[in-house]
Amino acid sequence: MNSLFKIQHPLRSALTSRFLQRTLAYASNERKAEASPEPSPSFIHPTAVVHPDAIIGQGVSVGPFCTVGSSATIGNGCKLYPSSHIFGDTKLGERCVLMTGAVVGDDLPGSTVIGCNNVIGHHAVVGVKCQDLKYKPGDECFLNIGDNNDIREHASIHRSSKPADKTVIGDDNLIMGSSHIAHDCKIGNNNIFANNTLLAGHVIVGDYTHTAGAIVVHQFCHIGSFSFIGGGSVVSQDVPMYVMVSGERAELRGLNLEGLRRRGFSVAEIRSLRTAYRKIFVSVDSDSLSFEECLAKVYVGWCSLFVALLLKVVVEYATLDDGAVPDGNLLCCGNLCCGNPTLRF
Predict the structure, then answer these.
(1) Please, which of 64, 105, 233, 248 could form a disulfide with 112 given CB 3.0 to 4.6 Å?
(2) Catalytic residues
(3) What is the pLDDT of residue 345?
């Protein structure tokens, strides 16, 4: 027995030493790649499993214990940190980063396409099968992500639920930790989703929206551009552009004034939007007039560019394909009234 231990000890030491040498070589190559502006040969750590049919660009770094599937395409300058994985028909654009534990793609029919300069955070799961029970095994499903998105730790983004649709995310979005974007969602550009933002299936989000933490959006809802959703809200109806909503069943809380200022809206433009908001949502005649009559009244009395924009968006988000306005589809004003001194609009 003692002789067996004597044999194992030098063998274990040799294996440990060899692994450390490989890891140090990997770290050294990482530093060289960062220091050199020219494209360098790709480096694949010996412990990584990379299928020979995978397409690897120039200057790609694949860390220890990574997995790259046979149908994967990795663009130039991408970096896979240890224990990150790419499966299925997945195309990764240039200069993308997969942090430790990230999983991108799935061995399913269809594809996951990710643009350039995206960061997939620690243990995030992107491009896997949806959680819709109507999904039929064997159907193609798709996810398209644009450029310059920051998808943080433990976020999950699912593919579409049917071949005729796609889950789509635009450019320059910040999706914070533990957020979820379900099947068939359409996300625009420059949005900020705070931690634990949960979007159900088929949700459509415009541009420059901002959600606070721990919010839930019901399936098929539309979130208008430049809107803000307060923390802990449950959104079960459409949210018009430019407004703030919040509440356990979210209600309108006025214009998103700070968001509009940050996005460069002028004082005159904000004043026009405020006028339109009051006429449509908090008019003293709103109880006696139909929704269409409120819109017509504002359009006749206040024909500025931004009032017209607000009207266009309200109609777009509140009407069905046949042009009818459904009751209760658009967020109502709840307990708001013109005499409430606490309203900010």
Answers:
(1) 105
(2) 183-184, 201
(3) 35
